[in-house]
Amino acid sequence: MGICNSCDALSAADSATAKLVLQDGKLQEFARPVMVSRVLEREPTCFLWDADDMVFDGFVSAVDAEDELRPGQLYFLLPISMLRRPLHAGEMAALAVKASAALGGCGKPATRERRLRRPAWQCPRLLA
Hints:
Order of helices and strands: EEHEEHHH
Pfam families: PADRE
Strand order of the largest sheet: 2-1-4-3
């Protein structure tokens, strides 16, 4: 699908990388240890959230700035406005779709079908 943006990147299938789903749905991977604070230098209005903490109506909490991203772990870059409030069903579904699209678009050879199909949110007819 071509929606991957990498920094110290390996394929998405490689569980030795820490994976970060950006707000625009792109996937950023880190092959070497990196501090959360380093990742957030370019995104001062955001925080990192560990996908393992995804619980319906659970409160969204930030990964500590002094923690390192863990290989094989999935994280989301979220706006500060989501911090310390419940994650509702619609938001959880949207994040799951975003992660699925990001992970599904990387590390796999493009087939004719995959090149021709676009998610609904990328179809020009739906955006007009």
